[in-house]
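Lab notes, practical 5.
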Amino acid sequence: MCIGLYVFVYGTLKPGGRYHRHYCGKHLTEAVPAMVRGQLYDFPQLGYPAMTGGADWVKGYLLQFAQPQTVQAEILAGLDALEGYRADRPSEESEYVRSRLPVFNLSQEFLQEAWGYRMALEAVRSQHGLYLPEGNWP
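Output from the prediction step:
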């Protein structure tokens, strides 16, 4: 039985992004333009963004993977490794934290919940993240 895995992405995992093909492309079923509430920051020196909590809109894609659960677990494990997230350690020891996020279409209508990766605001500040008020990373 296949129950879809849904992940919201906003940076290098977006379609056309540096890591999309390797981590998502092989198993991707659908990519829908979408957005979530939060604040987006750029790390030009690192070449990737980070999202924190907040009331702004962060634009990206809702990715769907309609694969057997064993494959979905492998996909999520690969994404966790890329994002520096481990569920077995305190959140402050992870670069990003994976959590369930309400995802909306571009008309601000609720679509569904999906996994997403956020960084703590303190970590963004310590790495000198540049706030992107438009909520879109190149």
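Observations recorded by the TA: Strands lie at 5-9, 30-43, 48-65, 97-104, 110-118, 130-131. DSSP finds three helices and six strands in the chain.
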